[in-house]
Amino acid sequence: MSTLKNKVQLIGNVGNEPEITNLESGKKAAKFSIATNEFYKNSNGEKEQNTQWHNVVAWGKIAEIVEKYVGKGKEVALEGKLTSRSYETKEGEKRYVTEVVANEILLLGIKGDNATE
Predict the structure, then answer these.
(1) DSSP string for residues in 27-89
(2) Domain 8-39+48-116, what fold?
(3) Which CDD domains match (predicted)?
(4) How does pLDDT run along the chain (117 residues), one tens digit per residue?
C-alpha cells in the first residue's frame, strides 16, 4: 500500500465544454468538470441517484487530447491526484478550490457519438 498516496480514479460525464488555455511556454492547460453518479435504495426501497461534480485540470499532452476529443456530455475515465489551492476574489474574499489534476484520460462511450464530432 505504500504506492497509494494521492490517487483518484473517476468515470463520469463531462459537464461543460473544456476551457483551453495556451500558456506562454507553448504548453496547453484544460479545465472542465465531470459528474459521477452513485445509485442506492432509500429507506422506502426506491432507487435514488447521488451526483457529485469534480473539477478537473489537465496539462500538456493530456490537455491537447482534451481539446481535440472531449466535449460536453462525453463519458471519460481519468486518473490523477487531488490538489487544493486558494485565491482571493476582487472583493478580498478568500476562496478554496479542490481539483483533480489528470495524468491519464480514457475516452469512453460509442465511437463517433455526437460529443466527439
Answers:
(1) -EEEEEEEEEEEEEE-TTS-EEEEEEEEEEEEEHHHHHHHHHH--TT-EEEEEEEEEEEEEE-
(2) OB fold (Dihydrolipoamide Acetyltransferase, E2P) (2.40.50)
(3) SSB_OBF
(4) 666 789 999 999 999 999 999 999 989 999 999 999 999 999 999 999 999 999 999 999 999 999 999 999 999 999 999 999 999 999 999 999 999 999 999 999 765 555 434
